[in-house]
Prior knowledge:
Elements: E1 7-8, E2 19-23, H1 41-59, H2 63-69, E3 83-89, E4 103-105, E5 123-130, E6 137-139, E7 165-166, H3 172-175, E8 181-185, E9 188-194, E10 200-213, E11 216-230, E12 239-242, H4 250-253, H5 255-258, E13 261-265, E14 272-278, E15 291-294, E16 307-308, E17 310-315, E18 318-321, H6 324-329, E19 331-333, E20 340-342, H7 344-357, E21 363-364, E22 373-374, E23 387-391, E24 397-399, E25 406-407, E26 410-411, E27 413-415, E28 423-425, E29 434-438, E30 443-447
Parallel strand pairs: 1-14, 5-12, 6-11, 19-28, 20-27
Antiparallel strand pairs: 2-3, 2-14, 3-5, 3-10, 4-11, 6-12, 7-10, 8-9, 9-10, 10-11, 13-14, 13-29, 15-30, 16-19, 17-18, 17-23, 21-22, 23-24, 25-26, 29-30
Amino acid sequence: MTYGVCLKISDPPLNSTWMPLDLMDGPCSSPSSSSAVVPPVDELLRRDQLRADEVQKRLSHNVGDDEANGPANSKVTQVNHLAKIKVELGSRKPAKTTASQLGIHPAATVGGGAGSGTLLPGVIQTVVLDTASDVPWVQCVPCPVPPCHPQTDTFYDPTNSGSYAAFTCSSSACRQLGPYANGCANNQCQYRVTYPDGSSTSGTYSSDLLTLNPTTMVNNFQFGCSHADQGNFDSQTAGVMALGGGPESLISQTASTFGRTFSYCLPPTASYVGFFVLGAPGVASSSSRYVVTPLLRDNRSPATFYRVLLRAVTVAGRRIAVPPTAASAGAVLDSRTVITRLPPTAYAAVRAAFRDSMRMYPAAAPKGSLDTCYDFRGIRSVILPRVTLVFDRDAAAVELDQSGILFNDCLAFAANRDDRMPVILGNVQQQTIEVLYDVDGGAVGFRRNAC
């Protein structure tokens, strides 16, 4: 992990919803979190495997078989190599809110007439971006530790916010929670999100003012006010900002304004800053700068996931095809899985081609699931082969940044258990590339060297 000065390497695009994004445990994290304990690489990779298993289970049509196996250990579910943003939740002074104010408002204040006033800032909450979940949530007072996890941010206290409201059990928002509904307590709607790996969050389903940046606010933002969670959640985060395709996510809640369009760029290391954007790119980022591939539609799979068709991987010009069974299942874009998972036959060929191109460097012992590692001590410059992801019908090819090929001096790919399982495109391979999700338009765009 690289530490040092926090560096910004990209100018904000011409979009009013631009927000800085950084990785866990780097100098761009808050000062109070700089002393956080970074898990050993083997432990981090073990946690990442549980995350990948979770995604695979939720995509599996054999749900009964997965449930019969039981959940994994709930104490090892989170990974530190994650993208996070800071938002403000709540307000410290009541303000008028009418039905017409639902949605996004490009203003830092609301009100101005009799009976209204300027909204004072809420509390800063650091949240992990998650493209593979639907319900946003933060920890809320009362939240004893345990069952809640320690956090460096001030705990959000709904009693201190003049714009907070808990949904009643008869509200439409509560009735539409579906699998996330968890009954009723004191006429307040209760939610629970339980992941197949054993981690969970539960509490009161609520709404409040969400401030993304000084020019963008979401009134009546719906989220889980968590009073208990299970899992090894990092102290740098207060919760999760869900970006999935379900109706509860931030993307669905802001659809009337932004058309279910968002993008992010993960920086190459924790010493740099990336970005998160709601809505279409600004004028400076023309569509011609993106490599575009269709989003896959499949009513048999959860609406949560964003999937594309990965046809092949090229290593140093050598093309390795993805088996048709895995290609047809789609490749899931996940902002929280670290290492990309490939079908075993494709991975074996990718590994062979990569090892052949790297035979001048001394090999090192495997690290967890990563079996192609190198000892670069004393080597001033390392030349890596070009690695490219080839999407739908060869119409879209995205060359990975050099930072997206290795992880801790190991090839940042691993094998699924069999060739039928979907590919998972992890966040290492996404580094420095702006990934644009045009959900209503049915497409995903990739723009290289964006951050």
